[in-house]
Design goal:
Blueprint: E1 18-27, E2 33-41, E3 45-50, E4 59-64, E5 68-78, E6 81-86
Antiparallel strand pairs: 1-2, 1-4, 2-3, 3-6, 4-5, 5-6
Length: 96
């Protein structure tokens, strides 16, 4: 017997993420460069650990290994972790 939900899910399923532990540079609007560790990434964005607080809504350049600098917007920041959404999806291969 399969499992079923008796109600609809509150959130849509999100795209698969690939686990990472990659050091990357973020180029901020004031021309500063900070380094973060990317924990996971999908076609639409990434989650990273940062030592500096970033404001939600900030546009930045993310130096993504193998992709170069891509524009992204900070979507959330909490306790040294941040989530950013790419301006244009990267077109990564699906995670196996």
């Amino acid at each position: 017997m399969g499992l079923t939900l008796k109600r609809h899910a509150r959130f849509a399923a999100r795209a698969p993420r690939g686990a990472r532990s990659t050091r990357a540079a973020l180029l901020l609007p004031d021309d500063r460069e900070i380094f973060v560790y990317i924990r996971n990434m999908s076609n639409g964005g990434f989650m990273a650990i940062a030592n500096e607080e970033l404001t939600v809504g900030t546009w930045l350049g993310a130096d993504i290994p193998g992709r170069g600098i891509v524009r992204a917007q900070v979507r959330w920041f909490e306790s040294g972790m941040l989530g950013a959404q790419f301006e244009t999806p990267l077109g990564l291969q699906p995670v196996a």
